[in-house]
Specification:
CATH topology: TIM Barrel
Largest sheet: 3 strands, parallel
Strand order of the largest sheet: 1-2-3
Number of domains: 1
Strand content: 5-15%
Shape: globular
Number of strands: 5
Number of helices: 6
Structural class: alpha/beta
Helix content: 25-40%
Order of helices and strands: EHEHEHHHHEE
Length: about 160
């Protein structure tokens, strides 16, 4: 029912099917957002050129990190589209996403999963950006403002994967 006015519909169809996303977006008055699962700015460029989303949701853990995330946010700005960085991939990625969000003038919102922010995120890192009264404040320390807790990788419940030699 189009008389219900959600803020947006997130990934209403498969996010890698840009043509179907565009068809959906052009056929409704409800704004759409897509897609934290796209892997780089090439995929996001396709999304934007097709006008397949009203809002661009990026996730630094999926799109290539801080530099690629900032490039995607800048690209979205050139298309006149707001960005909404995603949360759900962990506290370090979320902290990095907050930094990108603070740097992108077209940031609409930074997603925060409260249950993660007040729960398991605090079990993994030394600190997080402060969320209060609907605003986020970055810590006044170098870098991302957080580190993995000492001994984290030695915990019995830790699953450690290493790449490279």
């Amino acid at each position: 029912r189009e008389d219900i006015r959600p803020f947006w519909i997130e990934d209403p169809v498969r996010p890698d099917d840009i043509a179907s996303l565009a068809q959906f977006a052009h056929g409704t008055r409800i704004p759409t957002t897509a897609s934290e699962l796209l892997g780089n700015r090439g995929g996001f460029r396709e999304l934007m050129e097709a006008r397949a989303a009203s809002y661009v949701m990026l996730d630094l853990g999926w799109c290539g990190g801080i530099s690629e995330g900032k490039a995607i946010a800048t690209l979205a700005e050139s298309f006149g589209l707001p960005v909404a960085p995603h949360d759900c991939t962990g506290p370090v990625t979320w902290a990095a996403g907050v930094h990108v969000a603070m740097n992108a003038p077209n940031t609409l919102i930074q997603e925060v999963v409260r249950a993660f922010y007040t729960g398991w995120y605090t079990e993994l890192v030394t600190g997080l950006p402060i969320v209060a009264d609907g605003h986020i404040t970055l810590p006044d320390v170098p870098g991302l403002g957080t580190s993995l807790l000492p001994g984290l990788t030695e915990r019995p419940d830790a699953v450690v994967r290493r790449s490279g030699n």
